[in-house]
Amino acid sequence: MKIIFIDPNRLIHFIVMLFLSTSLFAQRNDLNPHRLFNYPNSVNSEPRVINGVSVPNDFPLLIPTINEQPSPGKIFLSNANGNSYYAMIFENDGTPYYYEKVNHSSVDFKVQPNGLVSRYSVEHQGFIAMDSNYNLLHIFQAQNELGTDPHDFLLTNDNTAFLICVEYQMVDMSNLIPGGKTNATVIENVIQELDYNQNILFEWSSFNHFDITDAVDENLTVARIDYVHMNSIALDYDGNILVSSRHLSECTKINRQTGEIIWRLGGRNNEFMFINDNIPISYQHAFYPVEGNPNYYIIYDNGNKRENFTRVVEYKIDTQNMTAEKVWEYRADPDFFTQRAGNAQRLSNGNTFINMERPQHPKALEVTPDGQIVYQANLSPQLEAHQAYRFEWEGIAERPYLLSEPMLGSVRLIFNKFGDKNVEHYNIYGDPHTEPTTLVASTTQPWYDVDLRSFAGSAQYYFRITAVNVNGDESDYSNTETTYLYPMFSGYSIGTLGHSTSEETSDPQWSVSKGGFENALYFDGNNDFVNCGNDNSFQISGNQITLEAWIKAAQFQSSTEDGVIIAKDDAENGVNLGYSLACGSNGIVQFSISNEQLFETATPSNSIQSDQWYHIAATYDGSKQRIYINGNQTAESGSFNINIGNALNQNFLIGGSPFYDERHFGGNIDEVRVWNIALTQAQIQTMMNIQLGAEYYTDPTSGLIGYWRFNEGQGQITDDLARDNNLVLNGDFSYGESFWELVVITGYNAQGSVNDSDQYFVDVTNGGPSYESIQLKQSNILLIQNNTYTLEFDAWSSATKYFKLKIRKSDSPWTDYSRIGAAYVTSQVKHFQYTFTMTDYSDDHAELIFFIGENNVNFYLDNVRLTTDIGTGIINPSIKETDYKLIGNYPNPFNPETTIQYYIPEISHVKISIYNILGQLVKTLCDNIQTSGKYNVQFNANNLSSGVYFYTLFAESNQTSKSFYNVKKMILIK
């Protein structure tokens, strides 16, 4: 658990990397998910490759609609909205020439007069400069503790940098205008010229030259006033400075030596008489000199505070006669209007390149001096772009650039060595280390799908790429991409062997089970039990249940309530909740369910004899309780109807009761199963003598919610094979605070902890002014596009409390995938359930966040579950098997031999392979043609070291188009 304090006055990007470790012999509070990799078969989308350049699914395409001999050069732009942000260079036909995915909108991407490429970077809080190999050379930031404005940036041929800076000043506006705030925050713009060592060569302040009241179209009575909003900067032909001040509707020329204003065009302080133009400049976004034509200037005139249309206008300035003559103008037909942003660039051949900014308008429009459109293109999907430029540019990346996309069962690697026409192939490296050196594959394509199913579950893997040219020279490594190996089914309740007294140190002992099964557990009848935690799957609140086990009683206890085989029960303050199955005095089997009132049904005396194996099953179908011994009904209750009460505060135990310490079973127990449905007698008889296959315990709709085979044969834990599809790790907090973070904004205060009942408690002492002030979150959640998800949890509070809930993108633009919104809790426990469809692109780093600030009311949370509907079908033992199945291996863990079992429905080519944790092939057990039927294949690991291994089944029908692939985990212990 990490508590993170975030300073709201500084933009800090936190990355919390949780390295998941597993320990085979974990204690009760250790983190040990024991989760297998089990992806459903799926059809993943085809890669997107545009004229040999691969791009991700969320990459915005540039679609030209007019391309009639435009100017030479490439198009530079970056999108300002959407689910993902890119800095991009395109050819005229829309082929990507270069791109980089960034965490935040990265504006003003362009080539500078000194030949470097620059853009604004939120991560660096300034402008970055790159060479023609796309290597980062320098970062330019405002000095004197000012903020760097992202609107515009200039690198001169003298290698100095001009930045627009921002500073916040407290001003008593009541002295300037009626109704002004006495403590208004006024944003000042500052111009700084820096050398490469960030030394200030020149500084100019708007406070010293612009009056706040000159912003006649701004509301100066508000608490925050942006009275200048400087949005472009350039050098004129004579070396002096040109700036655009949007909220003054003014274009200004400033003496670079003295800082004095040379002239002012537009706005309240306009000094020029306009010729051929009666339209006032209004809220312009860009003001630049026309290169090669002194005293000519081009303006992108947005037009906010006049009749709403946007134009590009060129003026000739005569400083002798103080006239501004309109010599050229472009207005679309029909007019377009850009409320903000946009820009225009005069090209060397006299054409003008225009970005209309708004999603529906072109981002790249090139017009001739007579207004003819020779190029027009827009992004798809339609997005905003604050600036776009055309430059003649040739660049060759020094190393490949790599991105990854999560898919079902694999990760797609997307890579390009931009601008390099001599790449012969790419090498792909991947392993669990942060700088992977294990060669995974080579390919001539600019993408590769890595099948993750032979890698370790619940782990973090790293990939990087090199490019090899036609001479065999290998490039430097690319950037590293990380992928998490998520199971689509999870939520194991690991059974921990234990005892209830400190004096005795022995726990349940491994023993031999009845014929047909393998191992069992022997309980001493005094204090042994298996503690399976308090996973949400055991909170049966409906009106159906089935409890099953094979038992061999060594002794009978003194009362019918004793000798508990299975229990999750509670009787705190005399309120009975939960369920239990026991074999007590005189061989009586007793089945209990309760919801405040206790309902018990028992078999006759001597139904069970000691030292003999019996199958015990107890069901409740919403009407009657029934007990079956060896498949025969032995007891039945009268009719009644209840919903079984949740024993929320108690763990699920095998061999004892979580509430009644003295009710322990003495003897052997095996094949424990818990269902949230009532099995019929026929189903019980069909399944009681077999170990259930994966078709039962991997299907979330089968009703099987707990299944312990006890086949481990050694160690202190035993796996629950029934997975409940919970994508949230430690959602029941049975492993303490693991995987959860409490984020507290600086200046506010809250502490989080897990109480003795495995519930998360947030003690809020200063909740701040908003929900976002306190956040409880879990990161790195996998969401697949078009999947439907259900989020459930229990929550309550010390008093009525409103909170917000999101499952969202973990970085800008923080897309809210779940779209749940606000809710409230009271002092009564409330169960919440929400369903949503992932309509955005797949994300393997999504985060679940409870926003619980704004007041000082404490917050409680438990049983958080996020599931996806990927399982189908219902249990029906009589159905004939028609599909391939990799059933499993036994024993598991094993030493040194184990048997792998699988089913083939028709004549097929079958291949069984063994892999180590690095995905390296260890052995091929079979690779041949097999007829239909169930098969067993032996694997001997005498020559292998202890550890986790994976086995795969690949089968391809010789008769139909069917094929099958699946993978499972096994553990070798020596």
Overall description:
The protein has 974 residues and is an all-beta fold. The protein has 2 helices and 69 strands. The strands form 15 sheets. Strands 39, 40, 42, 46, 47, 48, 50 and 51 form an 8-stranded antiparallel sheet that branches. A 7-stranded antiparallel sheet has the order 45-44-43-49-41-38-52, with no helix packed on it. It has a 6-stranded mixed sheet with strand order 1-53-56-61-58-59, with no helix packed on it. Among the domains are: 2-37 and 729-868, Jelly Rolls; 401-484, Immunoglobulin-like; 495-718, Jelly Rolls (Sandwich), CATH 2.60.120; 885-972, Immunoglobulin-like (Sandwich), CATH 2.60.40. Helices cover 1% and strands 46% of the residues. The model is unreliable at 1-44, 486-494, 500-505 and 870-881 (pLDDT under 50).
Amino-to-carboxy terminus distance: 34 Å
CATH architecture annotation of the domain at 495-718: Sandwich
As a percent range, the share of helical residues equals under 10%
Mean pLDDT over all positions: 86
Radius of gyration: 35 Å
The total count of helices amounts to 2
**Which class of secondary structure composition applies to the elements?**
mainly beta
Number of strands: 69
Biggest sheet statistics: 8 strands, antiparallel
Question: Would you state the CATH class of the domain at 495-718?
Answer: Mainly Beta
